[in-house]
From TrEMBL:
Residues 45-144 form the HD domain. SMART domains: HDc, RelA_SpoT. GO terms for biological process: guanosine tetraphosphate metabolic process; nucleobase-containing small molecule interconversion; response to starvation. It comes from Nitrosomonas ureae. This is GTP pyrophosphokinase. In eubacteria ppGpp (guanosine 3'-diphosphate 5'-diphosphate) is a mediator of the stringent response that coordinates a variety of cellular activities in response to changes in nutritional abundance. NCBIfam families: spoT_relA. GO terms for cellular component: plasma membrane. SUPFAM superfamilies: ACT-like, HD-domain/PDEase-like, Nucleotidyltransferase, TGS-like. InterPro entries: ACT-like_dom_sf, ACT_dom, Beta-grasp_dom_sf, HD/PDEase_dom, HD_domain, NT_sf, RelA/Spo_fam, RelA_SpoT.
Amino acid sequence: MPEADFLFSETSKYLKPEDIIQLKNAYSFGLGAHSGQFRKSGEPYISHPVAVARILSKLHLDAPTLTAALLHDVVEDTDISKAEISERFGEPVAELVDGVSKLAKIQFQTQEEAQAENFRKMLLAMARDVRVILIKLADRLHNMQTLEVMLPAKQRSIARETLEIYAPIAHRLGLNNIYQELQELGFKYSYPMRYKVLVKATKAARGNRREVVGKILETISLKLKEAHLETEVTGREKHLYSIYNKMVEKHLSFSEVLDIYGFRVIVKDIPSCYIALGMLHSLYKPIPGKFKDYIAIPKNNDYQSLHSTLLGPFGIPIEIQIRTAEMHRIAENGVASHWLYKNLDGNFDELHLKTSQWLQNLMETLSSSTDSSEFLEHLKIDLFPSDVFVFTPQGKILTLPRGSTAVDFAYAVHSDVGNCCVAAKINGENAPLRTKLKSGDRIEIVTAPYAKPNPSWLGYVATGRARSHIRHFLKTIQYDESIKLGERMLNQALTSFNIDPDSITAIQWDKLVRDSGVKSREELFTEMALGKQLPAIVAKRLTTPAESVSHEKAATPITIMGTEGLAVQFAKCCRPIPGDAIVGLIKKDSGLIIHMLNCGNISHSAKSQENCLNVTWGKDITRTFEAAIKIVAVNKQGVLARVAAEIAKADSNIDDIVMESESNYMHMRFVLQVNNRLHLSQVIRGLRHLREISTISRIED
């Protein structure tokens, strides 16, 4: 096979003779295993693994990786086992093949679940050995190169997955050439008509601008020679997907995207980078806000370069990249540079450390995400590159996605810091936790030992790590709280039947758990707390038929302290506070919801049903609760300020305000934080002293 001969010829330039023998053995083994199998294009199937190995050989990867590339589909598509590969080619090769293989023999309920589980396995293997993902990326690249034989719907599905997952992974690992080709092919098959239009427009523009680009290239080269710099200057055309994204993001037509050409300057050392930058800035004026120094602050994938956009001749923006030869090698090959330039091994320790840290963070997300769609969401969030560089109080640089908040920063430092954060200081000034961070910000997180994540954080965090930890914490806390609440609800139901909860035997419990179809007593408690099982019915099932059940003893109320967390919710319609007569309503999947006894949203018939519970307030409640009031005041300047000052004077906080103005009067609705009915009365009493207020009352429905 000619392609195989090319592979052996290319790899013989850097591999040992014994390595070439192993590759030939692997090729023969794969040829036999895939005998009779063909691709949709009609080619023998072995052509695919050979093409994958050739892609990796351009990165000068080692013999085990290329061997695994030749065998990567053997376990999945033939009867060959991992043990056979291990016996013939060694355990390292077998592990690589196993890491790349899909979970083809396991049945999943949905395509999304199958996709998520495939990525889980791949990432676990990748954490052990990053070469797994290099093989997988080469595999995906060749599949994209031969995608034209697929049906259009399949093409779009594979292309979308490539753009969302594989291209960002290649970018994150610094594999620039693979990343850009995956993006171009993904764009081609996701939007075929747009791709064709842009190809045609770019070809036309290329002819018109060729002379201009050649002149700019010559001018740059001459200018750099004045500084006696050893340079290599090249012009490059921006990729179609990059042009398309710019058109979409900035709502531009193709003719308005002027900077479709860029220039790369490669110099011998770091000081020369900055000298070259100064020379070019003296040649053409830099556009403000378009300079980035990735040498001083490298990207997450260890990419280093100076980026600047200059205003060239005829008003054409020119994009310039300046870097050293070593930086260029890392920019093109990323983590593969470790194998490509082994004599420079020590220079890539930082890159591999960053890659390992990123993989470790992904593993944390993977372990705390139980839902497939949730895991994929976190993965996609973390894969997209970012340009926000922020500082810890100690001066350490952290890189976060654009749009990240102080909460994201807290979780990036440590999950315990995120779970306990209560406030933030940004550049020495107090700031809300939802504040979006900018490059250069110095952030200090204030924590409290008893603080815990707020569900509202999920509305504005930008990193998968933060989202995953918040969800995991809330699920764990809700589960623990639900167990305690469910047990209290069942004890109340048993007491109402004049049965001592401690008298229930283990045999009765075992029978109930078995009959209920749950795994444990704790799960049954949780279902009662979430309204999936009614305590009264469970209590009846717990008692034996022979046992007399009496309603003579009144139900012992469930005590509400307000510290039950997510297991107990307070109705927004009537906003009950300590001192109000209350009733508990069990709502399926929402748990126990506390209403005021006279709330209009609870009918008289509902109050007598089994999903309505007798509840009472506990003593010494220390937390605050929401209460709503409405005020009608004279429409005069400064009224709102005086009302707010009076509320603060009564030691209450304002959570929300809604105002409507008429010609002479102003209608205001406040949601306040109060301790109890007595505290609310004090607030209202203080407000009545204001002469501008006409009426004031509490909103109870």
